[in-house]
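Reagents: none. Just compute today. Deoxyhypusine synthase.
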Amino acid sequence: MEIKKGMSVLELIQEMGGSGVLGAGRVYRATELLAEVIKDEDTAVFLSVAGPLVPGGLRKIIRNMIKDGEVDVLITSGANITHDLLEAFGGRHHRGIEEDDETMCEHGMGRIADLYTKSEDFEVFETEIAKILADIAAKDDHLSIREFLTLIGSSLDDDESILKTAADNNVPIYAPGFIDSMLGLQLWMFTQDTKLHIDASGDMAELSDIVYDSKKVATMILGGGLPKHYALASNLLKGGVDAAIQITMDRSETGSLGGAPLEEAKSWAKAKAGSKLVTVVGDATIIFPLILAGAKEMNQRSME
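Predicted 3D structure written out:
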């Protein structure tokens, strides 16, 4: 590889493309595949987001992809939804606080690696989400998870919010495990005195319709876990996805889903025979912005 003064992101990635099957070469192949799927109008793009990627800095990137029509379905964890709402309600994710964890707990702070949240932000979150839940319950007391998240997004006043942008652009958000989050805890507490019911299986028919109505499906998988499996398994009845990119830090030896190579999905008919698959091992907060910037530049150049 050669580094030149003033080179663009794409030019750097193209230099990486000559390094074979090592990490740099995988970054190039992932960039090429991402550029292909986001410009293909016949391909529905499922973005799967696990881990704390909203506090990790990807909130605006995901929001802009939704606004720009580069994502057709978002599948994510309850944690990312909660942290999106935390910022939508005026809270922040903080850096640069150097205290031990026991002292942070005493001061009302929670730590995510080198990021921190404050209890006062979650107090505002609890107050605001309780108002939204009450408004939702007054209109409808039986909803699917997707319907529930769409209604929350429609009630927000933050144009930078992932939930609001998705609701405004009719992009469905699926979060099958969202109950395992602060939002899920607040929902459980709210339902103790109300008839509001969230149907965990209610999304399956709608998601299956999206799969069957799409000529092709590509998944962009950031991390692993439940969002990854939901994105792949939803395509099982149609023989699997046509293309997939996975960015993960997990290893394959333990048999974990997060570390499973995408080729393994072919044995389950979650990825089609002949599907285009690229796995990049690394931190999604570093690699995904890089390949997305490269893919956008690649598509822009192809139009010039």
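The two ends are 26 Å apart (CA to CA).
Action item: order primers for follow-up constructs.
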